Amino acid sequence: MLNQMCAELAEVGRTAVASGLVQASGGNLSARLDERTFVVTGAGTWLDRLTRDDFAVVDLDGNVLSPDTKPSSEWKLHQRAYLRRPDVTAVVHVHPQHAVLLSVLRRDIRLLTLDHAYYVKSIGYTEFHPNGSVELAETAAEQLAQHNCVIMRHHGCTTVGDSIGMAYRRAMNLEEAATATYRSLLLGDNTATFPVEHFDRLHHA
Which long-range contacts link 141-144 to residues 24+ away (Cβ below 8 Å)? Predict the structure, then answer.
């Protein structure tokens, strides 16, 4: 199970870098192993070069169970997400440019397509806190209690899901929604969004 999850996360890492969602050693990924432990990318690892040895195992009390691999400095972000959301089995933290830019400019990201409405649904925001800090982890987890996608201003985004694939789909659709919003603003539009009546049916069917 551990090796399979590491392989899935490594594939997400390669795709995320190739898609421009993150660069170099930015970002981190994790997946829940069981009710008390999760696997997370190691400190300083490049997401497009991940091997099995680049992952650490941490429990929900913050104990590192893999002595040979130090977890990402953002491990507390993942830990708090799992504590707040027992339904979540994967966490993706990347640095999407358009999503971060719009959040810094205090521009709401609008959901324009069916995929945006279905996968993103709603977006939470936090103010800037230093990476790896308890404040960042706690404020993001507070927003994750209500949203599956959270943007940390001046930093990046965190998305969660009941699978590694779902968490990553949400990250991709969040950035696509941000890019579409950015382009619509360049065209002079400030109001276009997915039809509210269909949005409600989509999530309450």
Answer: 141/77, 141/80, 141/81, 141/83, 141/84, 141/85, 142/84, 144/81, 144/84, 144/85, 144/88
At 181, is the secondary structure helix, strand, or coil?
helix
**Residue 143 near residue 150, CB atoms below 8 Å:** yes
Q: Give the predicted TM-score (pTM) of the model.
A: 0.95
Region of residue 108 (left: phi > 0; alpha: psi -120 to 50; beta: else): beta
Distance CA 159, CA 61 (A): 22
Report yes or no: 81 and 136 within 8 Å, Cβ to Cβ. Answer: no
Cα–Cα distance list, 44 to 17, 32, 102, 183, 189 (Å): 15, 21, 27, 34, 40
Report the amino acid identity of residue 42: G
CATH for 2-204 is 3.40.225.10
Residue with tokens 């927003």: 143
Residue-wise pLDDT for 38-64, tens only, equals 999 999 999 999 999 999 999 999 999
Tell me the C-alpha to C-alpha distance, in Å, between residue 121 and each of 15, 48, 77, 83, 199: 23, 28, 21, 22, 8
Annotated catalytic residues are 74
Sheet holding 123-126, edge to edge: 55-59, 37-41, 28-32, 90-94, 156-161, 149-152, 123-126
What are the pLDDT digits (tens) for 127-182? 999 999 999 999 999 999 999 999 999 999 999 999 999 999 999 999 999 999 99
